[in-house]
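thread: overnight batch results

M.L. [08:02]
morning all. the overnight job finished for the chain we discussed friday. pasting input first so we're all looking at the same thing
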Amino acid sequence: MMVFPADPVALVANPIQFLEIYEPIIARVLASINDYMLPKGVKLIAGELSSPFEIWIVASILFGLLLSMPVVGYEIYAFVNPAFYPHERRLIYPFLTAFVVLFFVGVAFALFLVLPALMKFLVIFAMMFKIEATVTAISFYTMVFFTALATGIVFTFPVVLILLIRFGIVRTASFKKYRRYVYILMYIVVAFITPDGGVAGNFILFIPLIMMYEIALLIGRRYEKQRFKELYGELKCKFCGADISPDDVFCPKCDRALR
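M.L. [08:03]
and the structure it wrote out:
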C-alpha cells in the first residue's frame, strides 16, 4: 500500500522521499536500459534541465504505442477483414503473427545485442585517446529508441517480401538476379539505422538481415511454385524432370536452357 507523509510540503521539498514512495514504471525501465547498455566509465548527463522530463514523455509515448499495438492491429484487421476472400483470410493469420513476432525479435536484437556491442565499440576510442566518455541523455536515448524501432521494422521485411511473392505482386527471380544491389541497399539502410556504429556495428545487424533475406527467398520460392501449379498446373523440366515456373529460362536444378 502506498503511504504518503502527513506533510505534503515536505514531500515537494524532498523529491527523493517521493521517489522512495512511488517510482514510475517508465523510470525503472529507463534505469534498466542504462545499467545494461552503458559501459563502465561512461557518464550519462542531462545536458539541459528539461531533458529528463522530455525523455520521460517520449519514452512513455513509445512504450504506450508498443503496448497498444496488438489492439490497434486488431482494429485495423477487423476493419478490412470483410473484404478478404476465405483463402486470403487463411493467409493473413500466419503472416500477421510472423510480422508481430519478427518486429519484437528485431527490437530485442537491437536492445540486447546491437546497442551494447555498439556502445562498447565506441568507448574503445575514448579510452584510446584518454578522453572522458560522457553522453547527453537526449543523444543516448534517441539512439536507443531509434535503433530499436528501426531494427524491428527492418526485421519484418522478409515477411512482407514473402507476402508479396505469395500474392504474385513480385517474383523471386528478380530478387535473385539483382541480389547484389539488394545487398547494397540493405547495407545503406543498416548504416542509417546505426549511424555511430561504424563498420563493426553495421555488420552485426547486416549479417542476420542477409540470412533472413535468403531464407525469405527460399520460402517465397515454395509459395511461388504452389501458386504457379494452381494457375498453370505442374511444369517439369524436359531434361531432368525438376519443377519449373513459366518465368524460368534455365532449369534451377540442371541449369539447362528451357527455351
